[in-house]
Amino acid sequence: MSLLEQESFIKGIAPFDTLSHNNLKFVCENLDIVYFTEDETLLSKGSQAEYLYFIIKGTVHEKEDDEVISVYGHHELFDPISLIENRVKHLFITAQETICYLLPREIFLKVLHEDENFEQYFFQTLAQKLNTNQVNKKNKELANFMVARVKDAYIQAPVIVDATMSIFEAVQYQKEQKANSLLVQKGEALGIVTDVDFREKFILKKMSFDAPIERLAKFDLIVVNKNEFLFNAQLEMTKHGIKRLVVEDEKAQVVGILDQISLVSFFASHTYSISNEIERAESVEALQSASTNLIRITKSLYAKGVKVRYISKLLSQLNEKVFKKLFELTAPKSLLEHSALIVMGSEGRQEQILKTDQDNALILSDDCSIADVELAEFTKAFTEKLVSFGYPPCPGNIMISNPVWVHKESDFKKVIFSWIDNKSGDNFMNIAIFFDALVVAGDKRLLENLKNYLLKKIENSGAFYAHFSKAVLSFETPLSVFSGFVLSKEGHKEELDIKKGAIFPIVHGVRSLSLEHHITVTNTIERLKKLNDLGVIDRELAGDLIESYTFLLSLRLKYNLEKIDKNSTPDNYIKPTKLTKLEKDLLKDSFKIVNQFKKFLTFHYKLNMLG
User: Fold this and answer.
1) Residues 260, 244: contact at Cβ < 8 Å?
2) pLDDT above 80 (res 451)
């Protein structure tokens, strides 16, 4: 190759793409091309490395105790850490005839020490590399928003009046202060009065001017600290369907009010307006119209670089509002106060961004008196309405239209006991999706009671946890010995299933550990944080899993949005040939972390001893 071709080749490999032109030229001027036969040892464990290898053609295996732990192919490099530490930790051997560029150690170290960003790359953990990739994808607008604090936005100065002040005096004072809301002090309690309260309560109810202002106030305030991230304030407003948050300082002293207008100046995804539209919907048709905007929000947030974990949290809250509202609009009165509508699986974990298949169930209180015919008519109609909203039916029929997923509390306990008692793959999966359940409408205590029952029945059962967790080994991680990725040979040719290969093992492994340690939060990342707090998973592995999981979900979302644009159905398949070089590298890194987690679970639950 010419020097120009060498520069083009090397520049396509991270982090050499960050080098200055002079340093890149210096590297290429010191390269040699070497040919290796099959099964030739390039680096031996414990030896001192002399070169950095760039593979032009062929495949190299990194081995530990005869086990292949990593595969390197065309346009990849190895092993910079051996050069930095001056000691080779594993065996590197060719799997086929291979041609490489070799860069002498002294040249690599010289460039390393001259370029701070280049040097930093090699001292990052896998989690940091994955996180850096996500951060670099953000545009400046969203980057500023994601690190902005509540105190960075415009906060209205608090205008506080005594609860005994008359409405007339309070309005006069509000006008003098040019405020659009009042805080009302009643002893230790603090309430709020807005223009809407004056219109809806005072005028329409023809209240007296002399009535105390406290009669208009709402005292169940949602409070946010001034140092909280602005994005979390947005989530709180969306979650509670409100326009204002009371802002406090570190000493819990009120410093002002953050309203929706201030947020809009930072963030223009219109999530609040859609949340409000869902709340105001008085018919199924109006609710359906509001729900059609969710894909647009997803595209907007993704395009602006928001991390997938934040997108999923926000979209989950909006989806929950849709389910809750539909339930309230269509459920018979006898159900509304005597049941709990739950979502399960990815919906329950608040990780379902796009409208994929439904996973829901209905728990009835034991004193619920609804007739069987009326119940069947409602559950069938509810599922059909969700389908018309764009939520496809569940292939496994895990929906309230299926009587198997509609029971009174006492009967649900019998079902749960049968899942535990009759150990099978299907029953373990039923327990798994149920453990991820979240109440979106109705009495939350019904689900709490059933989860407590489940945890009590399996408590201290090592055999149960081992068999339950074994599903993490159901699918091979799609890292091939020769080609890098294992691709589907039938149906989805030249693609790989990112869910089976990596997402499911993380989700189910984390779920298994959470079940064992009675962790009741359902979100995978929140579960990982709890497991780390308890010392079940160390900080490095927890961090690697969080960043890998975030990357995998982001990658799946990216290509599913492209499929939606082409009127194709979203799925879990991606085509490696469509990935950028960096995405391929990060995907391989993520697969390595998945394999590491599988080994951890195999040791923890002694899975290699199960039949």
Assistant:
1) yes
2) yes
Q: What number of other Cβ atoms are within 10 A of residue 106's Cβ?
A: 11
372's CB contacts (< 8 A; 6+ apart) are none
Q: CB 276: neighbour CB atoms within 10 A?
A: 19
Q: What is the pLDDT of residues 224-253, one digit of tens each?
A: 999 988 878 888 888 888 888 999 998 889
Most confident of 141-150, 287-296, 311-320, 423-432: 423-432
pLDDT tens for each residue of 384-441: 999 998 888 988 899 999 999 999 999 999 999 999 999 898 999 999 999 999 999 9
3-class secondary structure, 56: strand
At 121 the pLDDT is 79
* Cβ count within 10 A of residue 578: 13
According to DSSP, the residues that pair with 52 across neighbouring strands are 103
Q: What angle do CA 99, 90, 473 make, to 5 degrees?
A: 100
Calpha distance 406→434 (Å, rounded):
13
What does the angle CA 479 – CA 482 – CA 484 come to, to the nearest 5 degrees? 35
Phi, psi of 385 (to 5 degrees): -65, -40
Amino acid identity at 16: F
234-246 as b/e: b if 16+ CB within 10 A: bebbbbeebbbbb
Given a cut of 90, whether residue 55 has pLDDT beyond it is yes
H-helix or E-strand containing 166? Answer: none
User: Helix, strand, or coil here: 171?
Assistant: helix
Helix (H) or strand (E) holding 98: strand 98-104
> Domains, the chain, ranges and CATH?
3-123 (2.60.120.10), 150-268 (3.10.580.10), 272-459 (3.30.460.10), 471-609 (1.20.120)
Rounded CA gap, 292 and 334, in Å? 30
Torsion of Cα atoms, 444 then 448 then 449 then 455, to 10°: 170
- Structure-block tokens of residue 469: 């967790």
Secondary structure class of 49 (helix, strand, coil): coil
The strand pair at 91-94 and 60-64 is best described as antiparallel
Beta strand 360-364 with 406-408: parallel, antiparallel or unpaired? parallel
